Amino acid sequence: MAKKKPTVVKDERFLATVAYDGTDYIGWQIQTSHGSIQSELEGRLSRILKKPITIHGSGRTDSGVHSVGQTFHFDAFWPHPPKLLVHAINSCDQKGLLVTQLRRVPSAFHARYSAIGKRYRYEVCHGYPPPWEARYCLGTGKKIMDIAAMRKAAKLLVGKHNFIAFGANHGQCMEKENPVKDLRRLDVRIKGPRITIITEGSGFLYKMVRRLVGGLLRVGDHKMPPERLAAYREEHIITAEVPTAPARGLFMDKVTYDPATLRRTKRKAP
């Protein structure tokens, strides 16, 4: 009697979306110390799937930065509906972190390299934010921002340009990354005391969003004319005149993918 061939367990690739309060984390990436978003997620998945799991994020966020739309992928064998894995991930102590979506994707998909766009938002509050919002919003003290000037500056910055002046040195500098980015959207919205700055583009340099916001806030505080902020971009020099806004007001809002890269081909029946 012929022996049955052992069943081959094959991993599949999964794409997840995660929301988190970044206040008490050291950022996305695993470092020598504990407390990163990546280490927390890998720990949960490894315990559930009973094997070491490595995740790959769509990008990195710094300590204090929040998310409603950060994405990551990982490979694992999970023969059940994805929603059951989401429930398992979220059923433990959440620690300010929640997986909101999970889906199977093609094996060639990559959370970072398949992305075609990213959207961030930054929350600012005229005056002082309520205590329960202080972790998620930058207060201006008693200052009232000039929204019209900020919108004028934002309009001058939009487009495909070299944004190295709005980046920041990180590790071995930014020499390996192309500083030319397509900034497709930079909106300044106001509702009551709340200012929301929305930025969307093909990609962003290290701390680029926070420095764009820092520059706009200087314009809104009449410490810099809109044209001068745009001129810094053309000078291609990183300067303290364009400050980096604090992390607590920044949210990773959405990562965009071409639907074709998410579509799995159906397996043919044997």
Number of domains: 2
Structural class: alpha+beta
CATH architecture of the largest domain: 2-Layer Sandwich
Low-confidence stretches: none
- Morphology: elongated
Strand segment count = 10
CATH homologous group name of the largest domain: Pseudouridine synthase I, catalytic domain, C-terminal subdomain
Mean pLDDT: 91
Element-level helix/strand string: EHEEHEEEHEEEHHEH
* Residue share in helix: 10-25%
What fold name stands as the CATH topology of the largest domain?
Answer: Alpha-Beta Plaits
> Rg from C-alpha positions?
21 Å
Q: End-to-end span in angstroms?
A: 23 Å
Portion in strands:
25-35%
Q: Write down the CATH class of the largest domain.
A: Alpha Beta
Q: In this structure, how is the largest beta sheet organized?
A: 10 strands, mixed
Helix count equals 6
Topology:
Blueprint: E1 12-20, H1 37-49, E2 56-57, E3 66-76, H2 82-90, E4 97-105, E5 115-125, E6 138-139, H3 147-157, E7 159-162, E8 180-191, E9 194-201, H4 208-220, H5 226-235, E10 250-257, H6 259-262
Parallel strand pairs: 3-10, 5-6
Antiparallel strand pairs: 1-3, 1-4, 2-3, 5-9, 5-10, 7-8, 8-9
Give your account of this protein's structure.
With 270 residues, the chain is of the alpha+beta class. It is built from 6 helices and 10 strands; from the N terminus they run βαββαβββαβββααβα. Strands 1, 2, 3, 4, 5, 6, 7, 8, 9 and 10 form a 10-stranded mixed beta sheet that branches. A hairpin with an 8-residue loop joins strand 2 and strand 3 (66-76). The model has no long low-confidence stretch (mean pLDDT 91). The chain folds into 2 domains: 12-113, Alpha-Beta Plaits, CATH 3.30.70; 117-254, Pseudouridine synthase I, catalytic domain, C-terminal subdomain (Alpha-Beta Plaits, 2-Layer Sandwich). It has helices at residues 37-49, 82-90, 147-157, 208-220, 226-235, 259-262; strands spanning 12-20, 56-57, 66-76, 97-105, 115-125, 138-139, 159-162, 180-191, 194-201, 250-257.
